[in-house]
Amino acid sequence: MDHDKVNQFMERMVADLAATDAAGSVVIGHRLGLYHALAEGPATPAEFAERTGCHPRYLTEWLRGQAAGGYADYDPLTGRFSLTEEQAFCLADPAGPNVPAAFLISLGMLRAEPRITEAFRTGAGVGWHEHDEDVFVGCDAFFRPGYAAALVPNWIPALDGVEAKLGAGARVADVGCGLGSSSLILAEAYPRTAVAGFDYHAESVALAREKAAESGLADRVTFEVATAQTFTGTGYDLVTMFDCLHDMGDPLGAARRVRRALAPDGTWLLVEPFAADRVEENFTPVGRLYYSASTFLCVPNGLSQEGGHALGAQAGEAAVRAVTAEAGFTRFRRAAQTPFNLVYEVRP
Questions:
Q1: pLDDT tens sequence across 176-222
Q2: Burial per residue of 83-113, b for 16 or more beta-carbon CB atoms within 10 angstroms, e otherwise
């Protein structure tokens, strides 16, 4: 046994364990608005306590932990903690990537560990609706900034003729819409277009309807409880699915339903997690993140549904393409990509 390699492995383990334990502190900072407060300017723990109304002893430990992890800066000369512009953008800016929401998802999904452990033994599924609410809310909060940054500026223009249709007034079905952020982004960007959002999770649909009413878009955006295999309507110019096909127990049935729902010249915008076809090419930080989420969320949900299929979050392009081809689609291409997503244009 090579003891140097043992030490190297233990160093990796300590880094992983520290990051895992730190997730709780990030979520506390999110719930209490501590990152927003720290973005206002440098502060000692006592000054920060006055600013936030929280207990100084807890804040001392929290601030030191944030600095130790690189989530805050510390000035030993003044004893003050602060956020750099970049840290504030990622942790506290509404226009930023909302990093704390990702940790909210992680803590939420880990609460299901006893059920997931038992599912390993039995092969049973665990439905999306069976998870903690932090999973639903966290997913919406984390994915929304990415969709807002890329959907209208980049992904829609990458599709053949779709931007012009949306501008003139189109019918869109947003399948697996969750809390409706993607639906509302499309409706806000294209005032002549009507969007119908569908999701099997009633709690998410209820929250989506509230968001539509608050945004003043309820006249053009509707939400309905329905699965990807049973959503209503035909003649859609555009059907969208954002990060959800791989979660479904019957992705082929969903693809066939999309095929029937599209107008003859319609387009299916299919967004999936970034993944390579070769397993070993997914042994990256992003791949590790997605495999973990897939183990707790995607595969259990797929196995909980009729069909019993589970593509998982790292299915890769070839597997997704095969589903669309079997469903009767004849055109499939990768239209765009980000470090986290692959964007496909699928046509009849």
A1: 999 999 999 999 999 999 999 999 999 999 999 999 999 999 999 99
A2: beeebbebbbbeeebbbbbbbbbbbbbbebe
Q: What is the pLDDT of residues 13-50, one digit of tens each?
A: 999 999 999 999 999 999 999 999 999 999 999 999 99
Q: How many CA atoms lie within 13 A of 69 on its CB side?
A: 21
Alpha carbon distances (Å) from 41 to 49, 66, 72, 91, 255:
13, 15, 12, 14, 50
Q: Which residues contact 309 (CB under 8 A, 6 or more apart)?
A: 248, 249, 250, 251, 252, 302
Give the C-alpha separation, 59 to 55, whole Å.
Answer: 6
How close are the terminal C-alpha atoms of the chain, in Å?
57
Q: Is a pLDDT exceeding 90 seen at residue 66? A: yes
Residue type at 324?
T
Q: Measured between alpha carbons, how far is residue 289 from residues 26, 184, 215, 234, 282 in Å?
A: 17, 27, 33, 37, 10
Tokens describing residue 259:
């095929």
Is the alpha carbon torsion for 40, 44, 48, 54 positive or negative? positive
Give the CA dihedral 237, 158, 98, 79, nearest 10 degrees. -170
The CB density around residue 290, as the number of other CB atoms within 10 Å, is: 21
